[in-house]
């Protein structure tokens, strides 16, 4: 029997984060084998307290987790988002998104650590996944015959299709010479866990300020009943360092001021992290025996919380075209297979990116007039069920040409 490192597998996935590992598991469910290569140490990524970040998983993404068998173990960590309240600086004229009785939730909040653990545990049990962690790729080879990744220790992992899943700084994308359009919003997102006095009642708050959105996302209560939410606060780049340096009490006071009392007093704030916000989109998401997924292909403003969900739609679409190709006897790296992925995902992800960029600019326009126009627009949406349903379907990720794996 050949050792996994000598075996030519269907996929060589560079990047074993949330998107890369979901792809490996989804491909395995369709009988496709993969090498997954990641720089990080999984023990560090899943350590208690490493990452206070949480992610909103759309309804469609949850179906994907159900279809690859990790939903059951995650269920207990989920906090449903049953409504979204949108306001312009807590002024009158708020917009509420509340799904109908048969529509289910608008998504579920999960600690990133729990998502990673579920994926890593499932991958460790899957014989079709050969996972190499703490590895550096020194050379990427692609030709008409196949692909290979050469590691720093000289190991060569071979396959038929290379997948770039390393995130927004993807070296695989850059070495393939794929051009990228990008601009910087000159803003930073500051992320922290909060405990607060009043229950959140499963409502996600999106409070818009001229510097950017201030979002409060519901998390499960602690075992002792302490109420928790995850904060994503957008500040201008020039204020970012100062806000990060504030002492806990001063930071709490600033947060409380912006919350307008919606969750009562803020009791404590967890570890803060921050990252710069930008938009990037590649001109194409495929090349010879190469496909880009997730942030390697597109990075959007977190205003709508769709970044990871967009990457998981890539996963569903790519697995579907690969499985359809395999049924016709096509190789995973076949240009026809990749072309279908390109046309399917290229436009959809660009439309989402465009919409979130437009929202960012609309809500970022300063001044009283802009605020009045926004509130007028929000009032119009509030009164128009069709528009509301459109936005809710977008949030749930169920609009557009959905891959099978993202359906119930």
> What is the second-level CATH architecture?
3-Layer(bba) Sandwich
- Specify the number of helices: 12
What CATH calls the topology is FAD/NAD(P)-binding domain
Task: Please state the structural category.
Answer: alpha+beta
Number of strands: 20
C-alpha Rg, in Å? 22 Å
General description of the model:
By secondary structure, this protein is an alpha+beta fold. The protein has one domain (8-182, 278-406): FAD/NAD(P)-binding domain (3-Layer(bba) Sandwich), CATH 3.50.50. The protein has twelve helices and 20 strands. The strands form three sheets. Strands 5, 6, 12, 13, 14, 15, 16, 17 and 20 form a nine-stranded mixed sheet that branches. Strands 1, 2, 8, 9, 10, 11, 18 and 19 form an eight-stranded mixed sheet that branches. A hairpin with a 6-residue loop joins β5 and β6. It is globular. The model has no long low-confidence stretch (mean pLDDT 87).
Task: Write a short abstract of this structure.
The chain has 408 residues and is α+β, with helices and mostly antiparallel strands. It contains twelve helices and 20 strands.
């Amino acid at each position: 029997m050949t050792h996994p490192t000598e075996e030519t597998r269907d996929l060589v996935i560079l990047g074993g984060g949330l998107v890369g590992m979901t792809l490996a598991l989804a491909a395995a469910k369709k009988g496709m084998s993969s090498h997954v290569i990641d720089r990080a140490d999984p023990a560090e990524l899943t350590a208690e307290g490493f990452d206070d970040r949480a992610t909103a998983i759309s309804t469609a993404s949850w179906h994907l987790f159900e279809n690859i068998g990790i939903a059951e173990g995650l269920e207990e960590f989920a906090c449903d988002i049953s409504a979204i309240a949108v306001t312009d600086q807590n002024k009158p004229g708020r917009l509420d998104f509340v799904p109908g009785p048969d529509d289910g939730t608008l998504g579920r909040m999960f600690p990133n650590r729990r998502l990673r653990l579920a994926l890593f545990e499932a991958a460790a049990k899957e014989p079709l996944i050969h996972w190499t962690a703490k590895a550096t790729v020194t050379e990427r080879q692609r030709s008409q015959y196949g692909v290979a990744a050469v590691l720093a220790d000289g190991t060569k992992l071979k396959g038929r299709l290379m997948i770039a899943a390393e995130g927004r700084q993807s070296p695989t994308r850059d070495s393939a010479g794929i051009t990228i359009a990008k601009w910087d919003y000159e803003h930073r997102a500051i992320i922290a866990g909060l405990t607060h006095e009043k229950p959140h009642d499963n409502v996600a708050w999106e409070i818009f300020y001229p510097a950017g959105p201030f979002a409060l996302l519901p998390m499960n209560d602690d075992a002792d009943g302490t109420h928790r939410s995850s904060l994503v606060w957008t500040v201008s780049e020039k204020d970012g360092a100062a806000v990060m340096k504030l002492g806990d009490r001063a930071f709490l006071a600033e947060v409380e001021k912006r919350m307008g009392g919606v969750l009562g007093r803020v009791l404590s704030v967890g570890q803060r992290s921050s990252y710069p916000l930008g938009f990037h989109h590649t001109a194409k998401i495929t090349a010879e025996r190469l496909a880009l997924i997730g942030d390697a292909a597109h990075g959007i403003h977190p205003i709508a919380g769709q970044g990871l969900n967009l990457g998981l739609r890539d996963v569903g679409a790519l697995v579907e075209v690969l499985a359809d190709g395999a049924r016709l006897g096509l190789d995973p790296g076949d240009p026809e297979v990749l072309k279908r992925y390109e046309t399917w995902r290229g436009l959809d992800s660009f439309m989402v990116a465009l919409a979130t960029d437009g929202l960012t600019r609309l809500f970022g326009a300063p001044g009283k007039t802009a605020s009045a126009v926004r509130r007028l627009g929000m009032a119009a949406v509030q009164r128009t069920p069709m528009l509301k349903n459109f936005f809710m379907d977008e949030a749930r990720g169920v609009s557009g040409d959905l891959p099978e794996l993202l359906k119930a």
